[in-house]
């Protein structure tokens, strides 16, 4: 192996890249953020985007947990209670957890009335949308989005930074706890929901610790504060992510260095 291409930005993780480029490992090229920003949306999703267009800037919290992110009924109830109490507008991409996530991905609940608290949909109909699959990039690009509850998949985190949307870290499985730790503890680019995350969704609902409504509500309020430090840091990092892809940006320079090294090795 002659080198490693990494979907990150030098300004985001300088200490890691400094170490890998001065150690015995092959050279590391930070060429990110690599993002797929064009998505087709259907008629239902277009309606959601039109609804967002009518909302004030940074007033809506977005909850979306990736293609493998789903919750059991007890956890759904806790999230709903928190959203009911906090008073903020929201878009909630809600799907049920799978008994065997490796073989069967989460699906939508067949009847939301049965899983959500009594009267929740009626009480929040003017300020909230509970949907299934969400056009995440299109929603994050809306100026109305003020915060993003995410499972901390790396692509989702890069998308949130690109659009300057602060996140609340809710890791579910695999490397997401490491990503959450980095974003919250090391970089200060995300709001904490819980200090410690126990369990893993790959082990099923029973293996995951319940997150209480009080914890979720506190995170929502912290995330949506217009002058919070996390929001300011995310805005600055967003500028750096955009600059990295410009002509003399760090990612463009890294890509050029990669191409030069490939050509050099081919000539040997």
UniProtKB/TrEMBL annotation:
UniProt KW keywords: Glycosyltransferase, Transferase
Record Pfam families: UDPGT
Molecular-function GO terms, alphabetical: UDP-glycosyltransferase activity
Family matches, as Gene3D superfamilies: Glycogen Phosphorylase B
Family indicated by similarity: Belongs to the UDP-glycosyltransferase family.
UniProt cross-references to PANTHER family, sorted A to Z: GLYCOSYLTRANSFERASE
Name of this protein: UDP-glycosyltransferases domain-containing protein
Source organism per UniProt: Eruca vesicaria subsp. sativa (Garden rocket)
């Amino acid at each position: 192996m002659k080198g490693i291409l990494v979907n990150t930005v030098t300004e985001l993780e300088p200490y890691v890249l400094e170490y890998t480029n001065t150690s015995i490992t092959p050279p590391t090229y930070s060429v990110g953020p690599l993002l797929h920003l064009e998505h087709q949306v259907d008629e239902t999703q277009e309606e959601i985007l039109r609804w967002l267009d009518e909302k004030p800037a940074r007033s809506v919290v977005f909850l979306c947990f990736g293609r493998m992110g789903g919750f059991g009924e007890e956890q759904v109830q806790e999230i709903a209670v928190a959203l009911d109490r906090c008073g903020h507008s929201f878009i909630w991409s809600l799907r049920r957890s799978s008994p065997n996530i490796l073989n069967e991905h989460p699906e939508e609940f067949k009847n939301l009335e049965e899983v959500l608290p009594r009267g929740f949909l009626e009480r929040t109909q003017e300020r909230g949308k509970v949907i299934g699959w969400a056009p995440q990039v299109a929603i994050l690009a809306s100026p109305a989005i003020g915060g993003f509850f995410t499972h901390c998949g790396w692509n989702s985190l890069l998308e949130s930074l690109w659009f300057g949307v602060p996140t609340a870290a809710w890791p579910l499985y695999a490397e997401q706890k490491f990503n959450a730790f980095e974003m919250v503890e090391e970089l200060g680019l995300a709001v904490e929901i819980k200090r410690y995350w126990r369990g893993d969704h790959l082990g099923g609902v029973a293996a995951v610790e319940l997150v209480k409504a009080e914890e979720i509500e506190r995170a929502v309020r912290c995330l949506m504060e217009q002058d919070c430090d996390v929001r300011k840091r995310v805005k600055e990092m967003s500028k750096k992510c955009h600059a990295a892809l410009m002509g003399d940006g760090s990612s463009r320079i890294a890509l050029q260095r990669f191409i030069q090294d490939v050509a050099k090795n081919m000539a040997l």
